[in-house]
């Protein structure tokens, strides 16, 4: 779960409040004996482990790697033929894909928390759910669409484009996240803040790290500790955690010492710290790591899918 934790954090938070949460069927990626498949919310296998790598479902499709990256539907049928060097999840009808730069990342356990890009060389564009290019590959990097805009990198700087590929917020940031609850994280001068959809700074760059807004709160780090701010930039939960993830389903994963648990919006633990690692919730389940194995829990902390390697 250590693949750029706060790159990986944003997609989960965005999808949990958007397309993945409203999908007719929510499936969760699992790995068994080095092969990837999917289980449903009850922990039952729906798509047998068969892929080199698999990402989360959104809008009825999920990126999978079979040599190269393509997409499968909820029955496991190939919906978009593997042809990309990297592929992100769908959001608002479009998904970032990379052409060129190699066939994707080495094996890492699934972690559905992307931050601001899908990484690597080549050029990025966006496809629709038919697998056809909607925005031609032209970007050095690209993230998810959210609220009609997607972060892209051009000339070494990040800005935002609309669904036609037109630049709406000029590339000017060192890094940029997708929008969440009307605000997007951006980095300027080595510090993170937030801008609105007009590109106006609403929360000044002052944080060492940040995550996306969820349930009106965003995780931020100042110095060694994490807390949560509201949309005005004021702390609602004071910095006190060693690590923190986005709120989803009224809960957020946080780490105290070596272990992760879950807090509510008051900062009180609802699920006590006990996991080696923990994700935000998606569709009522959250992925956790315990004893070197990955499983899924429900909002009560009960395992729905027991940990496996």
Summarize the model shown:
The protein has helices at residues 5-16, 19-22; strands at 28-32, 35-39, 45-51, 53-54, 61-66, 68-73, 78-84, 86-87, 95-99, 123-127, 133-139, 141-142, 150-154, 157-161, 167-173, 175-180, 183-188, 191-195, 201-207, 209-210, 218-222, 225-229, 235-241, 243-244, 252-256, 259-263, 269-275, 277-282, 285-290, 293-297, 303-308. With 309 residues, it is mainly beta.
Would you kindly provide a written description of the structure presented here, covering whatever features stand out?
The protein has 309 residues and is mainly beta. The protein has a single domain, classed as Methylamine Dehydrogenase, Chain H. It has 2 helices and 31 strands. The strands form 8 sheets. The chain has a 4-stranded antiparallel β-sheet with strand order 4-5-6-7, with no helix packed on it. Strand 17 and strand 18 (191-195) form a beta hairpin. It is flat, with a radius of gyration of 18 Å. The two termini are 12 Å apart. Mean pLDDT is 89; it is low at 1-10, 17-23 and 104-118.
Index terms:
about 300 residues; mainly beta; Methylamine Dehydrogenase, Chain H; 4-stranded antiparallel beta sheet; 31 strands; flat
């Amino acid at each position: 779960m250590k693949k750029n934790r706060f790159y990986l954090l944003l997609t989960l938070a965005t999808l949990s409040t958007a397309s993945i949460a409203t999908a007719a069927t929510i499936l969760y990626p699992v790995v068994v004996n080095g092969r990837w498949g999917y289980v449903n919310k009850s922990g039952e296998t729906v798509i047998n482990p068969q892929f080199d790598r698999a990402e989360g479902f959104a809008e009825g499709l999920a990126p999978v790697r079979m040599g190269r990256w393509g997409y499968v539907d909820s029955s496991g049928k190939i919906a978009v033929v593997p042809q990309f060097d990297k592929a992100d999840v769908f959001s608002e009808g479009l998904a970032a894909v990379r052409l060129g730069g190699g066939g994707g990342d080495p094996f890492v356990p699934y972690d559905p928390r992307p931050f601001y890009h899908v990484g690597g060389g080549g050029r990025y564009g966006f496809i629709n759910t038919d697998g056809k290019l909607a925005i031609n590959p032209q970007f050095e990097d690209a993230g998810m669409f959210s609220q009609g805009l997607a972060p892209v990198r051009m000339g070494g700087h990040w800005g935002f484009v609309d669904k036609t590929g037109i630049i709406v917020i000029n590339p000017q940031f060192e890094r940029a996240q997708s929008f969440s609850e009307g605000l997007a994280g951006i980095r300027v001068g080595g510090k993170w803040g937030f801008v609105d959809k007009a590109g106006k700074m609403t929360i000044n760059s002052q944080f060492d790290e940040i995550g996306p807004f969820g349930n009106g709160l965003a995780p931020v780090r100042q110095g060694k500790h994490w807390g949560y701010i509201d949309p005005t930039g004021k702390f609602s939960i004071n910095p006190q955690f060693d690590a923190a993830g986005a709120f989803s389903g009224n809960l957020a994963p946080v780490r105290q010492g070596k272990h992760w648990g879950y807090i509510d919006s008051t900062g009180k633990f609802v699920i006590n710290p006990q996991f080696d690692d923990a994700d935000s919730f998606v569709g009522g389940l959250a992925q956790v790591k315990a004893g070197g194995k990955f499983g899924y829990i429900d909002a009560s902390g009960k395992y729905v899918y027991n940990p496996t390697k």
